[in-house]
Automatic annotation (TrEMBL):
<keyword id="KW-0378">Hydrolase</keyword>
<feature type="domain" description="Glycosyl hydrolase family 13 catalytic">
    <location>
        <begin position="32"/>
        <end position="388"/>
    </location>
</feature>
<dbReference type="GO" id="GO:0016798">
    <property type="term" value="F:hydrolase activity, acting on glycosyl bonds"/>
</dbReference>
<protein>
    <submittedName>
        <fullName>Glycosidase</fullName>
    </submittedName>
</protein>
<dbReference type="InterPro" id="IPR006047">
    <property type="entry name" value="GH13_cat_dom"/>
</dbReference>
<dbReference type="GO" id="GO:0005975">
    <property type="term" value="P:carbohydrate metabolic process"/>
</dbReference>
<dbReference type="InterPro" id="IPR017853">
    <property type="entry name" value="GH"/>
</dbReference>
<dbReference type="InterPro" id="IPR045857">
    <property type="entry name" value="O16G_dom_2"/>
</dbReference>
<keyword id="KW-0326">Glycosidase</keyword>
<dbReference type="Pfam" id="PF00128">
    <property type="entry name" value="Alpha-amylase"/>
</dbReference>
């Protein structure tokens, strides 16, 4: 059988300003939580008009999710296999998504208080889970105290230059007479060129680091000048180089990854490639292999382990929805996610097959009745996460991608003495023969014993299995069945 191997990615070994990314990211599996929709753990703080859990999400309704609800379900996060959590905004705001902060130093009362936040951080850290918060510093909400002062006092306000107001009185309709985020009247844009604004934002960063968080995700950072973010990085890394900074980016990661801005970016480009192959079939395996190689070449080597890889988020349709309800196809996508270089992230509910179109549909309530779950997906995600934790090559190996046919792709992760892993994903309706040169390394310009592989995980008719088959010397199948995947492992000590 013919196969196409993409060339070794060497194009991007740019200087990284002498700065390494936090080492723990190579071992991280993230779990993203939209707090209002994860779990209602404290009904005493439910907002007015709260609706019964599990109702239809809209842009405006509330179901009462809170920080205590997250604490109560941290063991689920651990069971999924995650050891890091990214939380969308939790500061005082007026909306359910809270990207309209009124006070960056106060936990939203509908989510809890500072004591609840400290309990979350402590309980998470006790379980070995790191916490990353959302830094929404391009814009505030129109309820923010500084903006309200401008509305009331106009040009006499001491905060008049904290935002960009063109005239008075302040007018939100029909067209705001102040700069906003994407034209949303309730999201006035900060004037990040103002030294007082910069100091306010940097104080926010320092404050929550002092409260124990492990990093920041930068919301729409491309709307703010890079000098601001260089200062932000200096503030964060000046406290601890081990703190994570990840920039939201949908197209061009390079600008953030030169060592002076962020450690990694949200890897939506990888998402497009994976879903183009497993869901839309707009990408052949050859397209996927070349696309992955080009993407790797665009990312400096030091930043590759710090990329935040995802298939779904609060800004996209659900993974199973994108796959038209096809559980098997969604598991093929998860296999590619967990096999790729960078930190995989699971959006809450995707691990149990939650459905939903893009916002607001993707922000539905997490179902906590296990009879509503897809246990096939859950078992598969758990097995992949477990295999990643146990296999150094999947966490720290270099990456090569090759196409075995138009419908079958192989991802090799090589960590030298730490071992090698090979994920083979076949989306086609026919079995694919695994070439001998792939199993003995010739396809990648290397050579090892084909008999040294063991089966780490395999997609079956039921699931990927709750535990991978890691028996040394296990028989390696010569074919990968239709709509199937197998992850092979060789060498290296398994370690958590």
């Amino acid at each position: 059988m013919t196969h196409t191997t993409s060339p070794e990615p060497t194009a991007t070994e740019r200087p990284h300003a002498g700065r390494e990314t936090p080492d723990w990211l190579a071992d991280a599996v993230f779990y993203q939580i939209f707090p209002e929709r994860f779990a209602n753990g404290d009904h005493s703080i439910d907002p007015e008009g709260v609706e019964p859990w599990g109702g239809t999400p809209t842009p405006h309704n509330f179901f009462g999710g809170d920080l205590e609800g997250i604490v109560q379900h941290l063991d689920h996060v651990v069971a999924v296999g995650a050891n890091a959590i990214y939380l969308t905004p939790i500061f005082a705001a007026d909306t359910n998504h809270r990207y309209d902060a009124k006070d960056y130093f106060t936990i939203d009362p509908a989510l809890g208080d500072l004591a609840a936040f400290r309990r979350l951080v402590d309980e998470a850290h006790d379980r070995g889970i790191r916490i990353v918060l959302d830094a929404v510093l391009n814009h505030a909400g129109d309820g923010h105290w500084a903006f309200r002062d401008i509305v009331e006092n106009e040009e006499r306000s001491p905060y008049v230059n904290w935002f960009s107001v063109e005239s008075f009185p302040v007018r939100p309709h029909p067209v705001p007479n102040y700069r906003t985020c994407s034209g949303c009247y309730y999201l006035p844009k900060w004037n990040a060129y103002n030294p007082e604004v910069r100091e306010h934002h940097y104080r926010v960063a320092r404050h929550w680091i002092e409260e124990g968080i492990d990093g920041w995700r930068l919301d729409v950072p491309y709307f703010i000048n890079h000098n601001f973010w260089r200062g932000f990085r200096d503030q964060v890394k000046g406290i601890d180089e081990d703190l994570y900074i990840v920039a939201e980016e949908w197209r061009d990661p390079e600008q953030w990854l030169q060592g002076d801005l962020a450690d990694g970016t949200t890897n939506y480009t990888l998402r497009d490639l994976v879903l183009g192959f497993t869901a839309d079939r707009s990408q052949t395996a050859i397209d996927f292999a070349h696309g992955m190689t080009r993407l790797t070449a665009r990312i400096p080597a030091a930043a590759r382990p710090a990329m935040l890889n995802l298939l779904g988020s609060h800004d996209t349709e659900r993974v199973l929805t994108r796959h038209g309800g096809d559980v098997r196809a969604s598991l093929l996508a998860q296999t590619l996610l967990f096999s790729a270089e960078g930190a995989p992230m699971v959006y809450y509910g995707d691990e149990v097959g939650l459905l939903g179109d893009n916002d607001p549909g993707c922000r539905g309530c997490m179902p906590w009745q296990s009879d509503e779950w897809s246990h096939e997906i859950l078992d598969g995600v758990r097995a992949l996460a477990q295999l990643r934790h146990e296999t150094p090559a999947l966490r720290r190996g270099t990456q090569r991608v090759t196409a075995l046919s138009e419908d079958c792709v192989a991802v090799l992760r090589d960590a030298g003495e730490l071992g090698t892993a090979l994920a083979i994903v076949n989306r086609g309706e026919s079995s694919v023969v695994v070439p001998a040169e792939l199993l003995d390394g010739r396809a990648f310009g290397q050579r090892w014993s084909a008999a040294s592989w063991r089966i780490g995980a395999r997609l079956t008719d039921d699931s990927m299995g709750s535990a991978p088959n890691t028996t040394p010397g296990a028989a390696i199948e010569q074919t990968v069945g239709p709509r199937n995947a197998v992850v092979l492992v060789r060498g290296g000590e398994q370690s958590q």
